[in-house]
Design brief:
By secondary structure, this protein is of the alpha+beta class. It has 2 domains: 139 residues, Chitinase A, domain 3, CATH 3.10.50.40; 127 residues, Roll (Chitinase A, domain 3). The strands form 2 sheets. Strands 1, 2, 3, 4, 5, 6 and 7 form a 7-stranded antiparallel sheet that branches. It has a 6-stranded antiparallel sheet with strand order 8-9-12-13-10-11, covered by helices on one side. A hairpin with a 2-residue loop joins β3 and β4. It is elongated, with a radius of gyration of 30 Å.
Length: 324
């Protein structure tokens, strides 16, 4: 698939450069530069109101910024109205099934004509935006368009899901890297040691002598270890919890959560503290601020220490079924 997509992108780029060097490069009523590469088909041209199914490559100057090749095609309605002014839509009525077209828009013209009201930070007035379109189909009837779009959406669903998962994984990795850097900085600055000492003093003041430290600073009192599967990174853990602030024992949150450990979806202290339990276990996590929400959080003071009364309801390799 990647080879096919790369080939299509190369073909689109080749078409563009051929078009730019051609003497019959044309200009639309609004000033768009374009070059049509007609197909050998005998279909009639699209008319206003028709739905046009197409693939496209968009580039700014020589850099590709967007492409639908290898993805779901897009659908655009042919129009001669104000929305088509200095827009590729203006050219749809000149095209039929199988045609290709290269369209060049100048950013300064888009700005002067009011197509864009404010210049995006990624563009300069001297830039060109180039579109390469390939017309796949023209639908004269709305119901045919809707049926085809639904079919294409269903075909594209697995790719979309995979892309979404890859984006989420990238975001998680970036978040974990940021969290690691922040924690290393807190250890270097002495904030970690300060937080641990403050929690030890708090536990002593409350005569809590059976708390053990887990990970990098979370203290855990185990009331019931549990008899089921061990909590561990990579496991889905369902937990009933009540969260309180250490400074005044006020409850700030309670509920039921289910998360996969090791992906940064919970605060660090919750992640490491839950590893003291098996399914069915219960106890209390005492979390210094540097293992909780850190220096900046809209709801809490900087480095706010907190505690969570927890009960581990389920530990599994899979996410539980949605509740009815």
């Amino acid at each position: 698939m990647k080879k096919i997509v790369h080939s299509l992108l190369f073909l689109a780029a080749t078409i563009f450069f051929v078009a730019c060097s051609n003497v019959d490069y044309r200009k639309s009523k609004s000033g768009l530069l374009y070059k049509i590469f007609p197909s050998s088909g005998t279909d009639s041209l699209a008319v206003e109101g028709d739905w046009v199914k197409l693939h496209f490559v968009q580039r700014v100057n020589d850099s590709v910024v967007q492409s639908t090749f290898g993805k779901m095609p897009i659908y655009a309605r042919a129009s001669n109205g104000p929305d088509a002014h200095y827009s590729p839509i203006e050219l749809l009525s000149k095209l039929k099934k199988g045609d290709s077209v290269v369209v060049v828009l100048y950013v300064d013209s888009m700005y002067r004509k009011g197509v864009i009201q404010q210049l995006p930070p990624t563009l300069k007035l001297t830039d060109r935006i180039i579109y390469d379109f390939k017309i796949l189909e023209v639908f004269r009837d709305d119901s045919l368009f809707r049926a085809d779009e639904a079919r294409e959406r269903e075909l594209d669903a697995p790719r979309m899901q995979k892309e979404k998962e890859e984006q989420m994984e990238k975001m998680r990795a970036e978040m974990m890297e940021k969290r690691k850097a922040e924690e290393e900085e807190m250890e270097k600055s002495g904030e970690a040691a300060k937080g641990i000492k403050a929690m030890e003093d708090y536990l002593a003041s409350k005569n809590i002598t059976n708390a053990k430290m887990f990970g990098k600073g979370t203290f855990v009192v185990v009331n019931n270890e549990g008899t089921g599967e061990q909590v561990a990174p990579g496991k889905f853990v369902e937990v009933e919890y009540v969260g309180s602030l250490v400074r005044n024992d006020s409850i700030f949150d309670r509920g039921l959560l289910e998360k996969k450990l090791g992906r940064g979806e919970l605060i660090s202290g919750m992640e490491e503290g839950l590893e003291a339990f098996k399914a069915g276990g219960s106890g209390t996590l005492f979390i210094p601020g540097f293992r909780a929400y850190g220096k900046s959080h809209p709801r809490f003071q900087p480095f706010e220490p907190m505690k969570f009364d927890v009960k581990v309801l389920r530990v599994s390799d899979t996410l539980s079924a949605p509740r009815q």
